[in-house]
Amino acid sequence: MRLPAFFLHLICKITLTMNRILVTGGAGFIGSHLCEKLLSLGNEVICLDNYFTGSKMNILHLLDNHYFEVIRHDVTMPLFVETDEIYNLACPASPVHYQYNGIKTIKTSVMGAINTLGLAKRTKSKILLASTSEIYGDPEVHPQHEGYWGNVNTLGPRACYDEGKRCAETLFMNYHNQNGVKIKIARIFNTYGPRMNQNDGRVVSNFIVQALKNKDITIFGDGTHTRSFQYIDDLIDGMIRLMKTPDIFTGPVNLGNPVEVSVGELAVMIIKMTGSKSKIVYLPLPEDDPRQRKPDISLAKRELDWEPKIALETGLSRTVKYFRKILAPDKSL
Ligand SMILES: NC(=O)c1ccc[n+]([C@@H]2O[C@H](COP(=O)([O-])OP(=O)(O)OC[C@H]3O[C@@H](n4cnc5c(N)ncnc54)[C@H](O)[C@@H]3O)[C@@H](O)[C@H]2O)c1
Fold first, then answer.
1. pLDDT per residue over 221-242, tens digit each?
2. Which residue of 5, 18, 107, 177 has the fewest C-beta atoms within 10 A of its own C-beta?
3. Do the Cβ atoms of 120 and 86 come closer than 8 Å?
4. Which residues form ligand 1's pocket by a CB distance below 6 Å?
C-alpha cells in the first residue's frame, strides 16, 4: 500500500526532528526510568550499559520499541555513535557496589566522563552528568547549596565514588570552557523508587525488603541522622528540564527533595506501611557516613521551574508495591 505524500512527509519530518539520545548506565535504576520517559516523549534512545549493577529486566519492557536500541559497552572504553544529547549515568551508586572495585569506580567516573565528553565534542551533542550530593562529603553547611565546596576525605572508603564524581565535574567544566561543549551538571540527592536494586544496601530498599520479609530492620547509627529522599519521577522530570535549559546554563544544580526525615522515622513509616512484624536493631555507623544531607533547591526552582511533587508516603507505597511484586515468589512472605 502506498502512503499518501502528506503522511510520508509527516513521518519524515517527525523522524528528522527526533532527537537521538544516548543514556549511559541506561539499564540501571535511574537510567531505565530515564530511557522510558525519553522514549515516551518521542525521542530515539540508545541505552548503553555493561550490566555491572544494571539489569536487562529493567529495560525488558522497552525492547519492542523500534526507537530503542541497547549496546553492551563499558564507558571506560571510547565509543562511536551519532547522538544529539547524552546523559552520562554509568557508575555504580551504592557503597557496596562502588567499593567492590574502587579503582574501577574511579575509572568509570573519570574515563567515562572523558569518553562521553569526547563523543559530545565530536557530535556537538549536549551532555548531562549525573553527579551526586556525595561531592559535598560530610557537609559542614546545611542545607547544601551549589556554592559549597564540600568536605570530602580523599583517602576514605567513599573517596573512589566522591572524588571520581568531583573529577568528572571538573572535566565537564574544562571541556565546556576549552572546547565549548554544551554541558549540564546535575547533583543528584538520594533517590528511590521501583527498580532499585534490592541487594545494594541503600536505606529505602534495605528497609522495605527487610520489612516485607519480617526480618530485623538494621539501622546504622542511632537513627537520628537524617536524609532527604526524592522519588524517581521527580528526578527524571528535573533532569529533562535541566537538559532543556539554554546552553549558557551549565549548572551544577541540586536535584533532590528538601523534606528531611530521620532514618529512624523512615524505618517506622515502612514498618507501618507494610504491616511488618520486623523489629529495629541498631548497628555502628560506617566510616565517613554523612550525618545529614538536605539539598538547597533554590537554583533548580529558579532556573528549571522545578521542585519535587511526590510526597514520601506516596513514593514509598509505590516502591513497596514494586518490591512486593518482585519478592512474591519468596514463600516466606
Ligand atoms: N540513586 C541515587 O540516589 C543517586 C544519587 C546521586 C547520584 N546518582 C548517580 O546516578 C547514576 C545512576 O545511579 P543509579 O542509582 O541508577 O545506579 P545503578 O547502579 O542502578 O545504575 C548504574 C548503571 O551504570 C552501569 N555501569 C556501571 N559501570 C559501568 C561502566 N563502566 N560502563 C557502562 N555501564 C556501567 C550499571 O550496570 C548500571 O546499569 C550514577 O551515576 C549515580 O552516581 C544516583
1. 999 988 899 999 999 999 999 9
2. 5
3. yes
4. 24-25, 27-31, 49-54, 74-76, 89-93, 108, 130, 132, 188, 190-191, 197
Number of helices (H), then strands (E), belonging to the chain: the values are 10, 13
Cell digits of residue 119? 563523543
Q: Which residues are catalytic?
A: 161
Three cell numbers at 63? 525492547
Work out the burial of residue 39: count CB atoms within 10 Å of its CB; fewer than 13 is exposed, 13-18 middle, 19 or more buried: middle
- 73: closest CA among 103, 43, 115? 115
Question: In 3D, which of 103, 142, 191, 167 has the Cα closest to residue 290?
Answer: 142
Q: Is the pLDDT of residue 178 over 80?
A: yes
Q: How far is 258 from 271, CA to CA, in rounded Å? A: 23
Our mutation pick for probing the ligand 1 site, out of 24, 29, 100, counting the most ligand atoms within 8 A of Cβ, is 29
Q: Residue with the nearest Cα to atom 9 of ligand 1?
A: 130
From the CA of 93, how far away is ligand 1's center (Å)? 5
For ligand 1, the distance from its centroid to the CA atom of residue 243, given in whole angstroms, is 18
**Which candidate, 61, 17, 69, places its Cα nearest to that of 42?**
17
pLDDT of residue 291: 73
Mean pLDDT of the chain: 93
Q: Is the pLDDT of residue 331 over 60?
A: no
Tell me, what's the pLDDT at 67?
A: 98
Ligand 1 midpoint to CA 91 (Å): 4
Beta strands 68-72 and 44-49 are: parallel
- Cis bond before residue 286 (omega within 30° of 0): no
